[in-house]
């Protein structure tokens, strides 16, 4: 049995850069996510997180849709405002799993710039393996994202415990046969792991 964890919203907090980016770019508080700017921007963000386009290419699309000029000063805007913080109680649960000899991997939708920040902060060190979307060229909730991990890990779907804070991702993992749970907090995570007799 292996455990597959999402990163943002599960192991780390303060991972959503949109509010800070929105303020920096001068948009009002009625904008809550990049989806508010329409399908072309949303699709470009997905391609960016799949590693199919660069950050500059994303901002080119964003500028063409919004009319907002993005200054290219050589620094990643996504990286500048990304300040992820580990959730200690969740980390403790993962450490308990590891102490029991259970393999724990991370399956995460992540852009390269955020991946690099996690690496610099040693936030992936707790995992036996990290499966980042920008390297896989796949994104949750695509079923192929989960099948890719299953194949690489050499396990059956029913041998996987998966948790994520987004219901669409949980539903997709469940549809390929994984034991899948919606994450809300470390206490609930622990209960779900006990239900699967992993703790």
Quick structural summary:
This protein has 199 residues and is α/β, with parallel strands linked by helices.
Describe this structure in words.
The chain has helices spanning 18-25, 39-49, 55-66, 77-80, 88-99, 112-120, 133-136, 143-153, 167-175, 186-195; strands spanning 2-5, 12-13, 85-86, 103-108, 129-132, 160-164, 179-182. The radius of gyration is 17 Å and the shape is elongated. 45% of the residues lie in helices and 14% in strands. The longest helix has 12 residues, at 55-66. The protein has two domains: 2-14 and 83-195, 3-Layer(aba) Sandwich (Rossmann fold); 18-80. It has 199 residues and is an alpha/beta fold. A five-stranded parallel beta sheet has the order 5-4-1-6-7, sandwiched between helices. The chain has a two-stranded antiparallel sheet with strand order 2-3.
What are its keywords?
199 residues, 2 domains, Rossmann fold, five-stranded parallel sheet, alpha/beta, 14% strand
